[in-house]
Amino acid sequence: QLQLVESGGGLVQPGGSLRLSCAASGFTLDYYAIGWFRQAPGKEREGVSCISNTDGSTYYADFVKGRFTISRDNAKNTVYLQMNSLKPEDTAIYYCAADTNISGSFDPSDFGSWGQGTQVTVSS
Which of 42, 92, 83 is nearest to 64 (CA)? Predict the structure, then answer.
């Protein structure tokens, strides 16, 4: 069974950093494209970043470019999202998702497997 588990969320002050992890079990992560999404209260789920399973290409939403970095460690079967210079508007539940044959998609409907999410709160 394909499972994704996010961790690393928490409370951080504006300008601070967090590193989210997305650990996979039941499948080999390097065969899948991985996306990070977030959903704030009262808002739709939106794509944050994704990484290709073919050539390792990375993609970022405009609102996180230059602040967030996605990476994958295939040996650990884990994908990371390093988040720097966090802003209050980054507050949301962050989810990772996996699927095959996706390149640069930020459409949640393209991803078939999801984790349970981890809360990120940016507040002073």
Answer: 83
